[in-house]
Amino acid sequence: MSGGGRHGFDAPFFPADCHYRWYSTAEICMILDRFETVIFIGDSMLEHIYSAFNMLLRENIGMGGLKQWEMKESTPHVILPMSGSPAPESLHTTFTSIISGDPESYKPIPVILSVSLSTSLSWPAATASMDEWLTLADASQRNMPFLWVGPNAAGHLKPPAQILSQGNNALWHYTVEQSKEAKARELDALGMYNLTLQAGSWDGSSYGPKVALVQAMMIINWLSRVDST
Q1: DSSP per residue over 72-126, as a string?
Q2: Closest by alpha carbon to 210, among 12, 8, 6?
């Protein structure tokens, strides 16, 4: 799903050499029922994707991403906001509490991890974050598959002062190198660069719910392929 592109500015995205399904809410719930919980850990980009994830579950594009709207779901899911590595100790405590359920449970606990612009695309910070959360997960002795999510591409409204350090050349190299680092650690990797290249952005970094919903559905497709046995 990381490959592919758009045939024109803000045109529909087509993945290369594969396809992804657009699941119904009922199907998404069936996918999530295979897990004990789903944990998102990351900076503002992943928070936007998590908001869209909730929109899909609640079948409400306008209000579904609001935390104030409570909803009883069979599989809990949570976002742990962080902006680098090491993360605050309080976040470690929350993470450990979430995963310290029934150690005999056969259900996996998928973790979606992403950090990029919040660290100014620091390669060492990215790999340190991977190692940090993998170490905590390994200590639990639970089945915890990881997905590393790469950053968005830069839109044409990216401020000129940020082009050198956070432009598409830097973002592309970050995407490629951190995908290699993730796979070396046996993490799956999902790039968002191709999806967001030529997508409309109001500030050159952030994209609206239309893009975030596609990103959330890509993650749901990954979840559908995770072995739950």
Answers
A1: --SS-EEEEE--SSSPPHHHHHHHHHHH-S-TT------EEEE--GGGTS-HHHH
A2: 12
Residue closest to 80 by CA, chosen among 37, 128, 36: 37
Three-class secondary structure of residue 66 per DSSP? coil
Give 2-37 as a 3 state SS string. CCCEECCCCCCEECCCCCCCCCCHHHHHHHHCCCCC
Name the residue among 134, 110, 122 with its Cα closest to residue 182. 134
Q: For residues 37 and 174, what is the distance between their CA atoms, to the nearest angstrom?
A: 29
Could you write out the DSSP letters of every residue in 143-166?
A: ---EEEEEEEPPPTTS-HHHHHHH
The pTM of the full predicted model, rounded to 2 decimals, is 0.91
In terms of phi and psi (left: phi > 0; alpha: psi -120 to 50; beta: otherwise), the region of 204 is left
Place of tokens 């799956």: 188
Spatial neighbors of 171 by CB under 8 A, at least 6 apart, are: 116, 121, 151, 152, 153, 154, 193
Structure tokens at 174: 């970050």
pLDDT tens readout for residues 181-219: 999 999 999 999 999 999 988 888 888 899 999 999 999
Closest-CA residue to 130 (of 99, 86, 196, 162): 86
> How many CB atoms neighbour CB 197 within 10 A?
19
> What's at 154, amino acid-wise?
A
